[in-house]
Amino acid sequence: MSLSKYKSKRDFKSSPEPTGGKSNNEKTLSFVVQRHKASHLHYDFRLEMKGVLKSWAVPKGPSLDPADKRLAMMVEDHPYDYKDFAGVIPSGYGAGIVEIWDKGTYTTIEKSDNPEKDLLKMLHEGNLKFTMKGRKLKGEFALVKLKNSDDNSWLLIKHRDKYAKENYNSEDHTPKSSPINKWLAKNKK
Ligand code: MN
Fold first, then answer.
1. Among 178, 176, 164, 184, residue whose Cα is nearest residue 63
2. Is the distance from CB of 62 to CB of 33 less than 8 angstroms?
3. How remote is the CA of residue 188 from the centroid of ligand 1, in Å?
4. What is the pLDDT of residues 120-175, one digit of tens each?
5. Distance, CA 41 to ligand 1 centroid (Å)?
6. What's the gap in Å between 159 CA and the centre of ligand 1?
7. How many CB atoms lie within 10 A of CB 59?
């Protein structure tokens, strides 16, 4: 898993984004969901695997409603340290504002002696099932690669469990005082 694509897209003289970073050797795997106001407002869904963050852009944001199938476009791996990144990208690729919308840990749904290995296998098969322990995202989810899709289209789907909620909109679960919302309010006038 290489960060060369990540690095080639960015000029670190002007971007405050992390250049690298390694996973600690903790037994848990991290996830982060960042809300990103670039040319369009979207969410970036990132799962730690093999010391980097596997990443998907989710235009509509994650949902806790199992009826929603959220399009998730797989993008380049991001460095592990990106999980703590929030701030302004003044220019260049992804220019705009990034804020952390949710974070926590995730693992396999089934008990496993080697969750990371099992998760990688499911990733390569295009059918990744996992349990999230975040502040907002909890319980079972699936990321399923669309068949015959050459363009990295996946669907992010909440499984029906005790954490499922009908009519979920991630925007309703973002504080009005968030940096992006303040910026949007100011620039509406
Ligand atoms: Mn983004």
1. 164
2. yes
3. 22
4. 999 999 999 999 999 999 999 999 999 876 779 999 999 999 999 999 999 999 99
5. 8
6. 25
7. 12
